[in-house]
What does this fold into?
Amino acid sequence: MDQPWGQAVTLARGLQRIVAPNPGPMTGHGTNTYLVGEHELAVIDPGPNEPSHIDAILKAGRDSEGRNRIRWVIATHTHPDHSPAAQAIIEATGAECLGMSPPVGDMHQDVTFNPARELRDGERLQGQGFSLLVVHTPGHVANHVCLLHEETGTLMTGDHIMQGSTVVIIPLAGDMKDYIESLKKLRRFPIKALAPGHGELIHQPMAEVDKLIEHRLWREKKILSVLQQGHSGTLQHLTPIAYDDVDASLHVIAQFSLWAHLIKLEKDGVVRKEEDRWITK
It folds into this structure.
């Protein structure tokens, strides 16, 4: 991705993207903030509490005469690279904060995010000239939503789908079984493109969805095979075996997704945990 940080780029009529300057192993080039609308705007995933990024959003949110157009600030979820800038934008514009509250007891959440109203699965946010359909997609985290811009068929996916990589699932707020079901749920909607929280637009949305489902089920099958071959043990022991196709520097992250897969397999009744060791039933 080569979009400069802080620059508002038009992706389609009524849809702009600004990339936050927070690159890293988990964020890629940076977090994507989307501005939806023309005469009045919804800001989706305001991003980190970075002053230059907040200024870029506020600038893009003004009309040609300098008047504020931002009416809503929405977070797809409340991880620290997606929602902390909300408060500053709301204070500067008077916009309404929408989303789902952070899960209780999860140390990976932005606890400053406090929606004025909780979004509901299937509801529509109607702005002047646009409609956003809310799709609840738990899995990456329990309070995750995607938003479908119905005029263009573009789905803002947050971290449900990222361009170029799979997302990490961190239990207990993250749930692999929910994640796979949420991916399958997307097949119901007339999606023409995916606008991920990190990376470029994805123009073959259902092919991407099917690829992700296939990959997760392949990984699950591999993990189960590892256990059936007698490699029972702790997460630390199993990760380099079950993720031997992944660079060792990423194993500390892969360990979370392994944990999520094992919890799913436990729910499916094929593995169990004895103290800190995982074994087949």
